[in-house]
Automatic annotation (TrEMBL):
The keyword Protease does not apply. This is Fe2OG dioxygenase domain-containing protein. It comes from the Bacteria. SUPFAM superfamilies: Clavaminate synthase-like. Belongs to the iron/ascorbate-dependent oxidoreductase family. GO terms for molecular function: metal ion binding; oxidoreductase activity. Keywords: Iron, Metal-binding, Oxidoreductase. The lineage of its organism: Bacteria, Pseudomonadati, Pseudomonadota, Alphaproteobacteria, Rhodobacterales. Gene3D superfamilies: q2cbj1_9rhob like domain. Residues 123-245 form the Fe2OG dioxygenase domain. Pfam families: HalD (PF23169).
Amino acid sequence: MSHDARELIDLDRYPIHLDGPARNAVLARVRRDLKEDGCAVIKGFLTVKGIAELTNEADGLADRGHRSFNRTNVYFTKDDPNLPSDDPRRQFFDRSNAFIPADNFAPQGPLRTIHDSAGFDGFIQDCLEEKLFFRYADPLADVIVNMAEEGSGFPWHFDTNNYTVTLAIQNAEAGGAFEYAPRIRVGDENFAEVARVLNGTSDKVKVLNLEPGDLQIFRGRYSLHRVAPLRGPRPRYVAIFSYVEEPNMVGAPERTMQLYGRTLPIHHERAGRRADSYID
């Protein structure tokens, strides 16, 4: 069944497809927030119908989510015994989560209808004020749904992608707050501050509670962040749209396998192709 983006996105409140004062006002606020701490939230971006349609789609694909239970560090790398024991690269945390890979979402379904809607990519690019701006070319990860269940969470990490756009679809009964340390990895790895976040002594951490229908723009490549554990039987759904600074970029094979349980030939063909020299 095809969908109409005008019924899914609150374009009256947020006319992202039309140049004018209303769009400019949203851009000004988002740009200010991104400049301050690399995170901006557009409340009520979806309509009530949009929330319902995306929830139904996620429910229908929930059995295709790749569930993983392991221990990871901030960078999704292996342990290095040559480093000091208190180095953040040697701090590992339990991770339990699930991702519904991008190739499960139909071109005419609600999630891709929103992603492909007129003005969506251009609006995100204008928010970020980036000249070099491309959709993530990863066929498993350009637009996905993170599905977290009771007891699940996502420990502290940096994103592989330079820009991540998330759309809150459904919350659990309790828990699931988004916590982040803004821009602590701008220019260098800043291991000392990363260590303080991990041991609970940093004063940089902010807490954000997103509601269904909220659109979040986040520079997760540079801000350490996590999702707190959930409580209750209802799963938490969050759609993730990813953008990068270089064309044709995909995830590294090791991390792709961790997150989605499989890789494609393209992940091996393009391994190591990155726009920066950060660890992950």
